[in-house]
Please model this.
Amino acid sequence: MQRHSPVTRSRPRAVLVDLDGTMVDTAPDIVEAVGRTFDEFGTARLPFATVCGFIGKGVPNLVRRSLEASGLDRRIDADHAQNVFHRHYAQTNGRLGCVFPDVSAGLGELQRLGYRLACVTNKPHELAARLLFTTGLARYLDVLVAGDSIASMKPAPEPLWHACQLLDVAHENSVLVGDSPVDVAAARAAGLPVFIVSYGYAGPDGPAALECNGLIDSLAAMPAILAARSARLHSRPSRNA
Model:
């Protein structure tokens, strides 16, 4: 017996969800790892908000921009700094941050309703998988597409398409939930509706500035939103009528 029944084209049946800033407040873990990296290099730590602004585009971007912000890029090799960061982040990953409110409840209800669920993140697979396991969120997810799963990362559309392919759901029947301009750009490029959480790491202009399909206060809002979208699509007259 199939787990999911066939659905009308464009009716959402898969939900792709970002990780950092959407499901888990990982900023404390990441900022501490950057701080420990700087401690090792004998340089003052960057402000918390500064490092938060670098989250979301993958570890290479995070480390590069942190080095540039401190002036370390003139004397520290970026590849070496990444190795040092990874060593420290392995110790802080999942230790200081926490799951955002209602994430588990929202994912659990989506799962109960039969939606296929994927995490699509720019975090490396090893770190993302460990975090999802530690927080207990892995049990809700069918698929993990990480920053090193394929050649491209968000904001490229390929990670979203890859997740849909693994879920065996057309991208026309999928939506993305994220927190940042990177998620909006990826969803637009992939042809997916995108919903942005009102918290997270949206950047200096905040989530309200992002051109998305809707702002939500928690993942618990998604079941009702998707039901409403399905009802609107179902009520549209058939082109063959």
